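Reopening closed ticket. The problem is back. First fold of the pair:
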Amino acid sequence: MSQSVEQVLEFPQVVEIVRRYVASPLGTAELETLRPLEDRAAAERLLAEAGEAMGYLRRGEADARPGGRPPLPFGFTGLHDVRAAAARLGVEGAELEPLEILHLLELLSRAGDVRSALEASRESFPRLAALVENLAEFRPLLHDLAGKILPNGELDDHASAALRRIRREIEQQRRAIQASLERFLRAHSEEGSLQEEYVTIRNERLVVPVKAGQKRRIDGVIHASSSSGQTLFVEPLETIDLNNQLVRLAEEETVEIHRILREMTARLAHYADAIGEAIRTLAYLEATFARGRFGVEFDGVIPAFSPEATPRLDLRQARHPLLEDLLRRKGRSAVPLSLAMDHDHRVLIISGPNTGGKTVALKTVGLMALMARAGLPVPAQAATFPWFAPVLADIGDYQSIQDSLSTFSAHIAALRGMVENAAPGSLALIDELGAATDPQEGGALAVAVVDYFRQAGAFTLVSTHLPALKVYGAKTPEVLSASVGFNEETLEPNYRLAVGLPGKSAGLDIARRLGLPEAIIVRAQQTLSAQDTEVASLLRELHRRVDEQHAAEAALEEQRLQLARREKEIAREWEKRETQKFQELERRVEAALEKFTAEARETIEKIAQSSGRRAASEASRRTARVERDTREEFEAALRGVPSGAAPRTLPAPGEGSLVRLKGVAAPARVKRKLSDGRFEVEVGALRMQVDAGDVLEVIPASPGAGPRALPDRVTVQMAPRTAGALSEINVIGATAEEARERVDKFLDTAVMGTLGRVRIIHGHGMGVLRKTLWQMFASHPHVERYYQAEQQEGGAGATIVELRS
């Protein structure tokens, strides 16, 4: 019996792994439909959703405490399969069971949690948020029906006022019957007619156990007897009316329960379509997060599909998921494979020893191609596939006695079907092509088959031991050769796929290692044709040279790394020595400046005493300028300008150029060049005129600098400048706090513009603004002194502030 490609490549087993990550019957049922799709757009949508689910889960893991998988803000555990109950909502007059209603309400509550969580993450996970957009608002329904059904499926007493009354009367009636029967037991306890002194229930009636031989002494109705016939369960005559009333109340309770259930069912029926949508959405979301959890657990990535015009198959560090799952349980890891094929290299011929991993390589590529089409992440660092449709595979032994097929015949039958479906968009996987027949004929047939697939434009991966196919791969430019790794000393495979050279079969070497008599091995070697021997020798030499090349490259890489480490060490040592030198130089300059500043203060105090405060203020500003210039020259020296060197030749700044000015921290932009060699520049909101000598540096424009186009629907309007905006600010009408903030920013800007004196206009009023601002000036770091303006400058309505240099 022939197998489908999905079965050959074990796709259903991968689905079983994904099924581990669902918690409800809804998610399990959704995964039943997980298949490779025929619609590329649909597959890409599934992959994008799985990618967001992986991101959502990984963000949760990053935010969680170490050790243990963090729970989702919503979950699917505990959800029941409510599809049948939801379907009955569309039936006129239907009445759901209490547990069915309870399970539906639980699902609707969970739907609300899911919607809230995903909509809150819409910015990061828009596709997941889009999946819950159509979920209805169920809070009014949940509010009306919540708490009416207990977890065990019984209606709560408060489900309706009538039910609460009936159950209260039932409880009272039972107590009355219990009291009556206890009186009866006390009255007959000494007669010897009672078997036991207790009350029990038979046929929903309260009865007492009476000895069979004493039944005539008890007036009442016999409802049952014990298995031995020695005990009769009698309802005393005096409690019959009480029991009848209890039965009537129980019937009323049943009627009321059915009425409540029908009413609740009708309420749910109004939401039938929305409930159906919620069931489908939660099932789909659970399957989506199961696919995402699979990707996270298997360190997977979301595969991409290459453009149809430039098909490309590119796998990096890919691992077969079933092999990975098996080896993880044993504490081991699968050996990854990497390969790249494109429009000009569509055929890959893999050769090498038995059990070396050739078949695993074919199955890994084919299975991952199916997983990509099914919207599943793949265990790899990166994966790109053409849109393979169809995927064709001949892997395994299809020998069938029942169908009278030999192994070779079964392979030919499979190849015939593959040839008939070969097309430019297909993927063909053929294991041990040309085997199970005469090697020469098998080799010729294998070459012809592979060449047919090549000319048909199909991506083709073939495993083989045949020399003819290896030679074909080496001689055909569009065909890539690959080999699986093999340890020459231990004669054991290492399962590593090396693209670029054919592999050695090493059948005789393996047979020798496994203990086949040496005489047989020697005889086999003698039987090999000269051509076979030459091919084997050539491959052996080729592998040896490649290994030597790899070893040489590894040695060179190690030398390069050592040299890079040594260069870093030398650079660190040099930087350390230079830093120490600069620190010592800075310390000396700072000490000299401190001495200069101290002496300058003494001199300024003497000037103040002899010539007045205004002369002292001018001397202070000049002293500050000398100190600032000295610091700038020192910083320039630290940047690499040697003492006594010729002055730097700066490029002439043009209009719009950015320049750095003496004493101004922020860059200035040149607005225009004046006739006397001076420049008009703009620093923030300030405009000033500076000498060419004040320009320390012309800041080079970064690549691509210049006027930039603004984004769509964005415009910029420059605020008009008033004549006095450079040296004064008007805060009349502002609150005290607003005035403080505006004036503080204004002082910062004025200092950047090296202004020495500014005017603050605050008005007369109640004097609140003046008082607030003067309190701020008293401790402000930029303020040297402040005082009321002269009458022509505003008098008591303005304050003059002299700034520190």
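Second fold of the pair, where the issue appears:
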Amino acid sequence: MRSFLFALILCIFVAGAAAAQSGSKEGELEALESQISKVENVVQDKARDDEALVKLRSDLETLSGSLIDFGVSLRPRLKEINARLEELGSPPNAGNPPEPELLANERKSLLQEKAQYNAFIGSAESLSIRVSEAINVISSLRRELFASTLFQRTDVSGALSGNTWGDFQRQAGVAWREVSSRLQFMFTFRKMPLLLAAGLSLLFGIGTYLGVRGAFGFMVEPRGKEIDWPYIAKLSMAFWSTIIPSLAVVASLAVAFGLFAYFGVFTNDTLNLTEALLISIASIFFIQRLAYALLSPRAPKRRLILVSDGTARILMALVVCLAVIHVVDYFFGRLFVTFSAPLNLSVLKSLFSSVAISAVLIMIALVKPFRGPETLAPRGWPRLVRLALILVALFIVGAVVTGYVGLARFTAAQVVVTGAILATMYIGVQSGQVLAAESVFPESFAGHQLKSLFSVSDTALDQLGLLLSFVIYAIVIVVGLPLILLQWGFNELDIQTWLYRILTDIRIGTISISLLGVLFGIFLFVVGFLVTRRFQRWLDGSVMARSRVDPGVRNSIRTIVGYAGVFLAAMIGISAAGFDLSSIALVAGALSLGIGFGLQNIVNNFVSGLILLAERPFKVGDWIVAGNTAGFVRKISVRATEIETFQHQTVILPNSELINNAVGNWTHRDHRGRVEIAVGAAYGVKPRKVYDLLLELAAKDPDVMKNPPPTVIFNGFGDSSLDFELRVHVPEILDSLAIATRLRFEIVDVFEKNGIAIPFPQRDVNLRMPDIEALADSIDAVKKRNRPRRKKTP
């Protein structure tokens, strides 16, 4: 009865908890649906605002992720419900005894909860479809907005009428009065904050510029500017002499702008104009540095585009002119927006800047920068380059004439800005390609510095150059592509969303891969690997060495710790990368099947290596004999063991052979050993005297152990000598050959002093005379047959 009441109370408690959880899930789903409805209602109202549309799309993608999380949160409870329903089984059929009412009620409750959760999942999927449709609508609206802005025709005649000049004069007067009044207000009421902001901006701005230049100045202006630079040095100098000073200028201007904004000196309008002015200064400086890096009018030996000195100066002036035209147009555009200038002024501004950029492009196309190989006559650009420049210029002019001023201005801006970004990316890519070439980085300035400071080998420097080339490629892509996308009408939130998807959610079928997780997992594995190696060195050098642990034991422990640490680091890295270890278990099962077919030897050697490290039948430094191989153990790994023979030959033996076959270990327990020296004495010598002399000789040797004592064995009577064997024990078996050699010398000396001869083998030969006579007769017969015949005289 008590158990029944307890089960009833437990069922009621579980049902109540499930109902509460179901209610919370329903409220969460309703909240998500409400947020989606709000975004859908706002989309059409913001159809002409690109930034607002981008923000709404970001909100929808966040809601889409929340719906996915909502569906994932339902899975554990559904799994529990299904498992419990499987335990309860199906209801009894008709005619069978009825089941207890408690079980029937529990099954009914679980089925209702399962149906409700399935309804939640269906609603979440419907909301996900709504979110996807809303995102598609926003994308369509943004495309239409971009196309309408870019391909909208404008009445150019209105911008060229006489009223435009009057509008310009009035707008200039308004701007002057606004700016002067605000400046007067700042000097009157904000004088101290203005002076403080200006002083700190000057101080920190110059400090930031000098700091960046000082830290990386050797990459911008290295020594030896008059030498013949290799191509890698030219590329590297061009890239860094563009990037480093530009970053210094941008950092100093950003510091200045941040200080003015922090002290609240400017109003919003003045702050916008200041921001536009600083961006204009930074843009002109960047393009000027890029042109100087490519053309180097004052340093011909660093020039990447091989043109004459005069042509280099002309081209640089034209490129800087393009930048100035574009930046002035940008600044006046911000100015007109700030002071709400008439539309005809904006159209006229875009018209003039587009035509001016077209004219400069045609002048660049008409320049003849190269010289002939023989006559040194001026030669123009390659036909494809010249044709492309002229076509782009004519396209801009044609767009202006036909009234598509926005399209013309957009194209002109991309020629300047995108061209500068692509030129910088090209220098970076070329630097990476040259740096990845074999033996280039070791011969570079940086390679020589690393070699002299850290004694790095050429092979390591070559690998470092390859790694640096990949780093340069990554920097070029990560920085260059977003800048180009921003110029072509994409928003920062678009780029952030794409980057987030690339890093966190790459889908291949039903598999989702997170690059960020993979990179984090690799990072954790590298950290774990380095920590393991550091712990190995500490354990071996600081703990076991001080404890006087045997070198073989130290090697075994160090190896086991290394494998365990690498395995643990791999598991942590795999888990951090987002891979399910249960899936890895499936892969391991498939791998075990492959092992059963073709990898038995590898696994056999691996397991044998673990057995050798655990049982330690021999250790590093032992003298072993395995089959026909004898030598010292130098390394025990999980697959094979390295043995160095006495001829200094390294033999790699698979561990399975050392486990399955007999192995002799001369130094297994200790280094003691026995030396046997066989010696013979001539017949006629008293054996007892030889016995005593050998024992006395062995007892005097300092390297012969006294316990066990030396022994002499009288082996027997040989054909030529009385055979003895001297057996002595030595404390170090590795010295046995030297001790045996010394004992043999002493035996020879002692035998000579005592008149004992060491005989050599002797044989008795018996000759029978009849055999000799028969042999002589046969020899005479042969001689007679071979004797030459005499010729008869006529």
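Update: turned out to be a display glitch only; the data is intact. Residues 1-10, 12-17 have pLDDT under 50 and may be disordered. The CA atoms of residues 212 and 365 lie 37 Å apart. Please close again.
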